[in-house]
């Protein structure tokens, strides 16, 4: 399968997303980030994620942690978790931070799909930056895992999707979208601005 063929993997249309993406729903859930206390709930969640990176530990823990982590081979992942806990919330809040651009100027629909697409774009930029680093692959793995943990949290807590088989199907579908988007953006980055622009607006 060629790169041009693989890039379309993530753009399949699935009926399973209809309820999640529709702005017309009979379910009593808040569909928009700015409705009710949804924005506050999201901000609280990201504050908690960010706070983990600055957590303070007793002195004896600080003394034994480095050699123990090295012995167990978890130093890189621990450093990666700390970094991603600071980076990810910034990516995930871009739709809200720049609402006047994405929603008002670009006329993107104010729904879950837009949040996912904008966040995926910013994650891709971080992924590209991490790639040449020594432990970039580990950092990117943690970043993508954090993203899809958030995808599930938003579906279940903000959009009323019950955990289980339906949520799993949604996540698989969004994972396909994410992979397709990353391949399309990579191709545009390597080839031309026109291809990258087409990938952004597809």
UniProtKB/TrEMBL annotation:
It comes from Paraglomus brasilianum. GO terms for biological process: mitochondrial respiratory chain complex III assembly. Belongs to the CBP3 family. Residues 105-202 form the Ubiquinol-cytochrome c chaperone domain. Transmembrane segments: none annotated. This is 3812_t:CDS:1. It comes from the Eukaryota. One of its GO terms (cellular component) is mitochondrion. It holds the Pfam family Ubiq_cyt_C_chap.
């Amino acid at each position: 399968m060629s790169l041009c063929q693989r890039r379309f993997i993530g753009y399949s249309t699935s009926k399973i997303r209809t309820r999640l993406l529709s702005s017309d729903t009979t379910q009593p859930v808040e569909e928009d980030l700015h409705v009710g206390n949804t924005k506050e709930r999201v901000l609280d969640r990201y504050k908690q994620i960010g706070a983990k990176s600055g957590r303070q530990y007793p002195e004896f823990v600080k003394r034994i942690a480095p050699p123990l982590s090295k012995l167990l081979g978890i130093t890189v992942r621990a450093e990666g978790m700390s970094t991603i806990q600071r980076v990810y919330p910034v990516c995930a809040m871009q739709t809200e931070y720049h609402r006047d651009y994405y929603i008002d100027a670009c006329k993107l629909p104010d729904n879950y799909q837009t949040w996912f697409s904008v966040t995926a774009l910013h994650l891709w930029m971080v992924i590209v930056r991490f790639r040449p680093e020594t432990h970039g692959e580990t950092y990117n793995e943690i970043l993508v895992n954090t993203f899809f943990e958030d995808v599930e949290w938003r579906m279940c807590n903000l959009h009323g999707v019950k955990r289980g088989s339906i949520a799993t199907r949604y996540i698989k579908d969004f994972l396909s979208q994410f992979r397709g988007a990353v391949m399309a953006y990579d191709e545009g980055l390597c080839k031309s601005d026109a291809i990258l622009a087409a990938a952004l607006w597809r």
